[in-house]
Amino acid sequence: MTGLEILGASTLYVGGLLLLDVLWLMIAARLTRHAGLEGLPLIIIPIILIWVVGGIFGLILLGMAL
To answer: What is the DSSP track for 1-66?
Structure first.
């Protein structure tokens, strides 16, 4: 893969993760609209997990492509 292909693939991958985060924020906001501060872990923890698992999976895909 050339550098531009890697850059394009990683941009699309990060964009996909951001889209997944926005979708989760909309769902979590709807679920926890009356929860107050108790709903914060339901919102924050899945976003952190999305980025950690996404980062690991992205590195695996990048390693397979190189």
So the answer is: --HHHHHHHHHHHHHHHHHHHHHHHHHHHHHTTTTGGGGHHHHHHHHHHHHHHHHHHHHHHHHHH-
